[in-house]
Design goal:
single chain; three-stranded antiparallel beta sheet; globular; binds iron/sulfur cluster
């Protein structure tokens, strides 16, 4: 419940430029210079900030800069502090998929070999976010943001759709590219009803980066080995089928915390943890508990 409130508040606050929705325009003020931590399309009429993945592609595809310490630094800062807690708690597109998953219907659990589909995210990051904007450039030296342009369903749902609804006459001749993106978005929307967060688990390049940082982030899940009886109830409760008791730093774990209350021995905790010199490099001091 607390998580849903935090997710909803974040989604509303980061998309609170109401004029944009009413007039079909995009906010261009100073706040747009700042990246938000989650995936939230720059072109959403209500968006106050920029999407980190969109900004990353814009810099890589720029004729002047191929690397931005600012954008990369912000992503590393967000990830280094919170890891995939961002996915579970403050990403608007994560919330949208979770709400769609509440639509009644047969639920399919992604487990076993199906989890290998998560490798598609590497193609998204290394080909669409980095490779194509870097190497496929126009005569002026600019590369296009391929992930935003050809794939991102968040862009279609959060930006294109509200803009079309607000000013339908301006979008009379939508071409093949829009049909491609609308089809991808439709597949993600329908898949979200049956599968928990299909975009996060199979397509999201930002979730992939934050997932790497789950191992080193200050926010951590911890399982007390002395208390854990390896009953597996946490895995059953986890909609992502994660065995947190075997791997508390799993890169797939979005730190939603839904496994914690089901543990019969209260072995699972989570929070911001500081390494303390006195206790050695491997120990943590927890300042936020269960
Ligand atoms: S539910 Fe608790 S006791 Fe059971 S496997 Fe998970 S962490 Fe261990
Ligand atoms: S392991 Fe726990 S915190 Fe991680 S995604 Fe699964 S239920 Fe959420």
């Amino acid at each position: 419940m607390v998580r849903k409130i935090v997710q909803s508040l974040t989604a509303v606050v980061s998309n609170s430029y109401i004029t944009g929705f009413l007039k079909g325009t995009i906010y261009q003020g100073k706040l747009k210079n700042v990246c938000v931590p989650g995936l939230n399309c720059y072109s959403c009429p209500g968006a106050l900030g920029s999407c980190p993945i969109g900004s990353l592609q814009a810099v890589i595809g720029s004729a002047k800069y191929r690397f931005s310490f600012y954008v990369t630094g912000l992503i590393l800062l967000f990830g280094g502090f919170l890891g995939r807690w961002i996915c579970g708690w403050i990403c608007p597109f994560g919330l949208l998929q979770e709400l769609l998953h509440k639509v009644p219907g047969k639920k399919i659990r992604i487990s076993g070999n199906w989890k290998k589909l998560s490798w598609i995210r590497y193609i998204m990051l290394f080909v669409f976010v980095i490779g194509l904007p870097l190497f496929v450039v126009n005569i002026a030296g600019y590369g296009s943001p391929a992930f935003c342009k050809y794939v991102c369903p968040a862009g279609t749902i959060e930006a294109a759709l509200p803009l079309i609804l607000a000013a339908p006459d301006q979008f009379g001749s939508l071409g093949g590219l829009f049909i491609l993106k609308a089809s991808i978005a439709a597949v993600v929307v329908i898949a979200s009803i049956f599968i928990y967060r299909p975009f996060c688990t199979m397509l999201c390049p930002l979730g992939l980066i934050y997932g790497w940082m789950n191992k080193i982030s200050m926010y951590q899940m911890q399982v007390d080995k002395d208390k854990c009886i390896e009953c597996g109830k946490c895995r059953v409760a986890c909609k992502l089928d994660i065995e947190i008791y075997k791997n508390p730093t799993s890169m797939e774990c979005i730190r939603c915390g839904e496994c914690k209350p089901v543990c019969p021995t209260n072995a699972i905790s989570s929070g911001i943890k500081f390494r303390t010199k006195a206790e050695g490099a491997a120990s943590f001091t927890e300042i936020e508990g269960k």
